[in-house]
Amino acid sequence: GIESQRAFIMHIGSASDIMRQYEGMKSLSFVKDHLQRAVFCSGDTNKRNRAVSMDSIGATGAGAAISILDKPATIPDYVWRKICSSLNQIQLRSIHRIMEGKSRENVALLQGPPGTGKTTTICHLVSALLNGAC
Q1: CA pair distance 50, 101, nearest whole angstrom
Q2: Which residue ranges in the chain fall short of pLDDT 70?
Q3: Which residues contact 7 (CB under 8 A, 6 or more apart)?
Q4: Tell me: the pLDDT tens digits for 72-100?
Q5: In this predicted structure, what is the pLDDT of residue 83?
Q6: What pairs with residue 79 in β-bridges?
Q7: Residue 64 φ then ψ, to 5°
Q8: Region for residue 36 given its phi and psi (left: phi exceeds 0; alpha: psi -120 to 50; beta: otherwise)
Q9: Cα–Cα 20 to 30 A to 58, which of 9, 45, 89, 97?
Q10: Helix crossing, 77-86 with 118-131: angle to 10°?
């Protein structure tokens, strides 16, 4: 017959998280240099001193109007023109501040009530980042 044996099982972690991180690190060579710098650069913390808030900027009306002439240097003209034609001033100021490196520690907080354009702003920001250059 078959002998009965006692077995102990211990869960020590998941290999899927480690594999996902490993695959992410391997794929870094395919990410554009300016995106690698944006993600991994510690940046100048004196220059990056405030988070971007959709409702706080909008509520106070802080800042001058952003126009096509205020294009961040890293965004190609055709991308900035499209962004300017698609977004309102609050959204443009958010993208402008992020692309100019004026958000604290390379982190920006886009917040606001539902329907205020946070997702639209993020989509345009991703477009600016993917098409940008340093």
Answers
A1: 10
A2: 1, 11-13, 34, 37-64, 67-68, 105-106, 133-134
A3: none
A4: 888 888 899 999 999 999 899 889 888 88
A5: 92
A6: none
A7: -80, 160
A8: alpha
A9: 45
A10: 170
Which tokens sit at 100?
Answer: 């100019």
pLDDT at 59: 37
67 phi, psi to nearest 5 deg: -130, 180
